[in-house]
Amino acid sequence: MNIDKKVSDFMNAFIDTPEPSVDQEYYQIEEQYKAIFGHTVPRAMLPDSISMGSIKSAMKTCIENKKDTLFELLGVELNDEYLY
């Protein structure tokens, strides 16, 4: 098999790969969160080790309690020296 065929096969497989499904539940919860607290969840400030399920659960708790304690609920601490 020549290199052009390999590249062509790879590109075709890449293009045919379905897009990942969007977590509609997350977006619905985040819209409620945003409506109450005036901002979205700062995902870039959260460690990758925190699961989507944990984030959704924490957002629901914040919404129910009407308190923006997301970082506390997820065990995330922000300071000038380190994140987490």
UniProtKB/TrEMBL annotation:
Please state what the protein is called: Uncharacterized protein
Say which species the protein is native to. Answer: Lachnospira intestinalis
